[in-house]
Design a protein that fits this description.
With 462 residues, the protein is an alpha+beta fold. Helix content is 23%, strand content 32%. The chain has 11 helices and 27 strands. Strands 16-17-18-26-21-24 form a 6-stranded antiparallel sheet. Strand 2, helix 2 and strand 3 form a beta-alpha-beta unit. The longest helix has 16 residues.
């Protein structure tokens, strides 16, 4: 068996904690592991780690690789140059697995941002699905609904099969009245977005119903390279696997997911899965409260003080605060879309940004300047790079830094500083056992991350 982890997504419904460049699958919302790391660990119960591959967008690739490298050696990651929804990602990755394995394996496709705690029951469900996949079905895993949720898609089942049911149809997210009728009917399941199939079956059904995706997929020769070129992939339609294949195929079966499941698709769902105090509250971080009830208050950096809240969600990050009624959390995605339309950076990135070598935090910015604190982990280094639009000034706060500047190598300790002129080739490195912290002040007419020309990089970003 092979596993495909879908590790893209924008995380719009968990804003402001989740951002375009740091979506929810990279967050640790319920434990030490991020949702992505927990997904990988769950699949390891079903197959060898080397049979698991992740597909993500190029803007998330370095963070996905960094996180998975903490729990497994040499994680394999396919990188989409542009987001095109799940159908192109699944079809192309299935072709990759089939070509590389030179066989017709069973593949399970899982989202990277769902919460499943009962891994034993998940494994038993996978084994049931495997039997149906061997019989030539594309298997979807459904969750028996226990309330009329309007934020999920539904699947209607009909005849029983050996380990599940034949699928009658897929249904879009319903209004409340329809959701109630689905619950009463007893034949509807929530769509988990988890699928299992033989590689040949999925590709054959895609050839019937999504020939445009198949034709473009044939342009990729994975025997020569695992790269997905932009010029080819950009021709793919932007369409989900449900629309492209699942809703049209007559080979779809459903197996009831026996484990717990939550897609953590809203702040209300974060409230639901966390333990409550005697007043039904969930407090995360530095929170001081008096007389609130049935509320979620989440602090990531500052003290949040609350008095007399009821059925309310408050989320604080370094640069944004969300406050809403608990039953309105599905509407957060509309705020996120508005921020994107306004080109507001709070939809894209946090003040603290994680990189393979460590992280940086923006502490001040204005017309023509930007200042950060840069944290470089032991034995790590930034790429050898230059900038066309900015100069930089570095002051070492702690640790010992190695600075490459043109043909020179400088060893700088706390209190020392160095100027990096515009277009100078340079690198900040930490070959030692203790972290390095540096204040960076950028000066220039264009202070953006895209103003980086890389020459060498230990993380493969050249």
């Amino acid at each position: 068996m092979y596993g495909i982890i879908l590790a893209g997504g924008s995380g719009s419904r968990l804003w402001p904690l989740s951002r375009e460049l740091y979506p929810k699958q990279l967050l640790s919302l319920t434990g030490e592991k991020s949702l992505l790391q927990a997904t990988f660990a769950r699949l390891e119960n079903c197959m060898p780690a080397e049979n698991i591959l992740s597909i993500t967008n190029t803007k998330h690739a370095s963070n996905v690789k960094m996180q998975l490298s903490k729990i497994t050696q040499n994680p394999f990651i396919l990188t989409e140059p542009i987001a095109k929804n799940t159908a192109p990602a699944i079809v192309l990755t299935t072709k990759f697995v089939k070509d590389k394995s030179k066989s017709d394996p069973i593949i399970i496709v899982v989202p990277s941002d769902h919460l499943i705690k009962d891994n034993e029951k998940f494994l038993s469900t996978v084994k049931k699905g495997e039997k149906l996949a061997e019989m030539g079905y594309i298997v979807t895993f459904g969750i028996k609904p226990d309330y009329p949720e309007t934020g999920y898609g539904y699947i209607e089942t009909s005849d029983s099969l050996c380990e599940g049911f034949k699928v009658n149809k897929f249904v879009e997210k319903p209004d409340l009245d329809k959701a109630k009728s689905y619950i009463e009917a007893g034949t509807f399941y929530w769509n988990s977005g988890i699928f299992m199939f033989k590689a040949s079956v999925l590709l054959a059904e895609a050839e019937k119903y999504a020939m445009d995706i198949i034709k473009i997929s044939q342009e990729f020769d994975f025997s020569k390279s695992s790269e997905i070129p932009f010029i080819n992939f950009d021709k793919m339609p932007n369409i989900s696997i449900d629309y492209a294949v699942m809703e049209k195929s007559d080979k779809i079966a459903l197996v009831k997911l026996e484990s717990d499941w939550n897609d953590l698709g809203s702040w209300k769902s974060i409230y639901d899965v966390n333990s409550k105090d005697q007043n039904g509250n969930v407090f995360v971080g530095h929170v001081l409260d008096k007389n609130s009830k049935n509320s979620l208050v989440y602090s990531s950096s500052k003290l949040v003080a609350s008095i007399g809240l009821e059925d309310t969600v408050v989320v604080e990050t370094e640069d944004a605060i969300l406050a809403c009624k608990k039953d309105k959390t599905q509407e957060v995605k509309h705020l996120y879309e508005t921020l994107k339309q306004q080109n507001d950076n709070t939809s894209i990135v946090h003040k603290t940004v994680y990189r393979p070598w460590g992280f940086y935090t923006v502490i001040a910015q204005g017309e023509g300047f930007l200042s950060k604190i840069i944290h470089v982990n032991p034995k790590q280094k930034l790429s050898l790079q230059s900038h066309n639009h900015r100069s930089e000034h570095w002051v070492i706060l702690s640790g010992t830094a190695k600075v490459v500047l043109g043909a020179k190598e400088l060893i700088l300790t706390s209190g020392h500083s160095v100027d990096i002129p515009i277009k100078a080739i340079h690198s900040l490195q930490n070959p030692y056992d203790e972290p390095v912290e540096v204040i960076e002040v950028q000066m220039g007419d264009l202070l953006i991350e895209e103003d980086i020309i890389r020459y060498e990089d230990m993380y493969g970003r050249v």
